[in-house]
Amino acid sequence: MRFEEAYSGNVFIKSKQNYDEAQAVIYGMPMDWTVSYRPGSRFGPGRIREASIGLEEYSPYLDRELDDVNYFDAGDIPLPFGNAEKSLDLISGFIRQLLLNGKIPVGMGGEHLVSWPVMKTVADNYDNLAIIHMDAHTDLREEYEGEPLSHSTPIRKIAEYIGPKNVYSFGIRSGMKEEFDWAKENGMQIHKFEVLEPLKKVLPTLEGRPVYVTIDIDVLDPAHAPGTGTVDCGGITSRELLASIHAIANSGINVVGFDLVEVAPNYDPSEQTVNTASKLLREMILGWVK
């Protein structure tokens, strides 16, 4: 697939047309083959793009405009419906090409399992990678009902791959007792319920390291983002999540890739969730692509 011909439909607002000159590349991973509750996140990337057209191009939080960043929207990776293993392989190959070309990968899901091949490929490219993970759920299971390829397993997979002490989870409020026990026994940091304050304490320890950030939209309370597959009450506000994105931006750490996943627009006819997601992505791009 030639990147300049990758996508002919809607693109994220202010996406540039030249792949070669881009600092960052936006791409969609429209997969929900393994979800355990409500499917539909495969429609997330397209609807986030559509909602982005209503965004202001200027961020008053960061005093920066989208024109200040050169990013290219490569469209959605064409994934074979129902085939999780092949889909993950295709995502890995796509990311390898981006990294080979010196691009920062900016992903949109899709279920959270799609983050696993991205994080693994980024870890293969950057020594001493750290993961910042914001989510309602631990995602530390080894399998779900006998299936190791599940949206409840990506953080366990990357923790085992790069070492649990290199993974930092925030906003967690749901998971099996065994998952919390495993994290504690293996030195992985899980910060329950909150994001911003514990994140501020962790960020100085990550200076000088490459960092990948993965955000599940369900870290937000369902009042702020009802359009997701596994809603869980007691989450953070959109204001706190924005402040957390800005804390990362202002910390000066080296963000080498990031994604926003689990937006399932069909469960939110108000379109609040896709509009929130598009603004979050704007702030991530403006704050983290230097």
Which helices and strands occur, and which strands form pairs?
Blueprint: E1 24-29, H1 44-52, E2 58-59, E3 64-65, E4 71-76, H2 84-100, E5 104-109, H3 115-125, E6 130-134, H4 154-162, E7 167-172, H5 177-185, E8 189-192, H6 196-202, E9 210-216, H7 238-251, E10 254-261, H8 272-288
Parallel strand pairs: 1-4, 1-5, 5-10, 6-7, 6-9, 7-8, 9-10
Antiparallel strand pairs: 2-3
Helix pairs in contact: 1-8, 2-3, 3-4, 7-8
Structural commentary:
- The structure is a single chain.
- The chain is of the alpha/beta class.
- It has helices at 44-52, 84-100, 115-125, 154-162, 177-185, 196-202, 238-251, 272-288; strands at 24-29, 58-59, 64-65, 71-76, 104-109, 130-134, 167-172, 189-192, 210-216, 254-261.
- The strands form two sheets. It has an eight-stranded parallel β-sheet with strand order 4-1-5-10-9-6-7-8, with helices on both faces. A two-stranded antiparallel ribbon has the order 2-3.
- Helix 1 packs across helix 8, helix 2 (84-100) runs parallel beside helix 3 (115-125) and helix 7 (238-251) runs parallel beside helix 8.
- The longest helix has 17 residues, at 84-100.
- The protein is globular and about 45 Å long.
- The protein starts with 23 loop residues before the first strand and ends with a helix.
- The model has no long low-confidence stretch (mean pLDDT 96).
